[in-house]
Amino acid sequence: MIVTITPNPSVDRTLEISALTRGEVLRVLASHSQAGGKGVNVSRALRSHGSATTAVLPTGGADGDQLLALLREHDVNAVTVPVAATTRSNLTVAEADGTTTKLNLAGPSLSEAEVDALLAATDAALACQPSWLVASGSLPVGAPGDFYVRIAARASALGVPVALDTSGAPLEVAALAGSFALLKPNHEELAELLGRELPTIGDVIGGAREVLSWGNETVLVTLGGHGALLVDRQHSWWAGSPRVTPRSTVGAGDCTLAGYLYADSEAPERLRRAVAWGTAAVALPGTTVPGPDDIDESAVEVVAEPDPALVIKEL
Ligand SMILES: Nc1ncnc2c1ncn2[C@@H]1O[C@H](COP(=O)(O)OP(=O)(O)O)[C@@H](O)[C@H]1O
Ligand SMILES: O=P(O)(O)OC[C@H]1O[C@](O)(COP(=O)(O)O)[C@@H](O)[C@@H]1O
Fold first, then answer.
1. Residue 142 beta carbon below 6 angstroms from any ligand 1 atom
2. Residue 3 main-chain phi, psi, to 5 deg
3. Angle, CA of 202, 272 and 281, to the nearest 5°
4. How many Å lie between the centroid of ligand 1 and the Cα of residue 236?
5. Is the pLDDT of residue 64 over 90?
């Protein structure tokens, strides 16, 4: 059983168009409304593979109701904390050449009592001793900057490992506090955290090891179309699959994390599965999560101790 907490979920709305031209009237080829938010997507991907999972999230207003209905459709067990403000709707414009433009709203403002209720709901979900707690996404206005540190302390008290996928200030506060079993930044998020560019494999491994030195156990860095790197204190692995033209990259990082956590395997096999799930996600429209039939682990190449001189953009 894996519990996810998504403090700022969304109804993801995707518009597929042939090409984006500013200032023009454009015809939409297809549109999708799907349950979104990073932890929500992890739960959806796990559920589509038959895993037991509970998604903890706040919901409010008509979009909150729609989000819950969408989760029900996908048979995802949701523990919801009702909030007064309306759940956000994030917008994606997906172009035929694979370019994905994401417009993410700040989301609703939560009161102190609502934040406390969210923490209490997470405590209640942790009582079943899940194998992982996944804490994911941006923080809503009103949540304290150390929200994920508080979450990690509660999980650690129960011996539950925490995987964190966030960005910006919440990532910095949490990563510096340490105590995360897994951090999943993408390439840009890790570079922003460290305040420097990370053009080579060696730069990313060095940066990940710096994050480990703050008291975290493992770092999974996703590299967009260039695969992913898994780094612990002793070892590193790179994995990638043949290039595909994405239909939508929204949710690819979340599916990568879900694939990593899905089963307790050796590190390189976890990474292979993670990249297979992420690659499958980009071939699907909007925030669609892959099921078992979409995944091809055999297409993923895994390299132990990759050459530090390799330039990521050239992989
Ligand atoms: N353009 C792409 N082509 C093929 N695979 C991709 C592409 N973009 C992302 N992926 C896959 O999805 C994973 C996560 O993508 P990434 O963009 O790094 O994460 P996030 O969605 O968290 O920003 C990558 O590690 C890769 O396996
Ligand atoms: O909380 P944030 O950082 O605004 O991100 C939320 C958005 O990210 C997603 O979870 C997708 O994330 P990834 O593309 O990084 O996997 C969307 O479903 C959601 O709209």
1. no
2. -100, 135
3. 105
4. 19
5. yes
Ligand 2, CB within 6 Å, residue ranges: 8, 10, 12, 36-38, 41, 90, 104, 137-138, 167, 250-254, 287
Domains of the chain: 2-314 (3.40.1190.20)
> Each residue of 82-125: pLDDT tens digit?
999 999 999 999 999 999 999 999 999 999 999 999 999 999 99
With 90 as the cut, is the pLDDT of residue 126 above it?
yes
Among residues 279, 257, 222, which one has the least CA distance to residue 135? 257
Indicate if 254 belongs to the active site.
yes
Residues of the chain with pLDDT > 90: what percent?
99
Q: Among the options 254, 264, 293, 294, which is catalytic?
A: 254
CB atoms closer than 10 angstroms to residue 291: 14
**Cβ atoms within 10 Å, residue 62:** 10
Atom of ligand 2 nearest to the CA of 105: 4
Average pLDDT taken over every residue of the chain: 97
274 Cα to the center of ligand 1, angstroms: 10
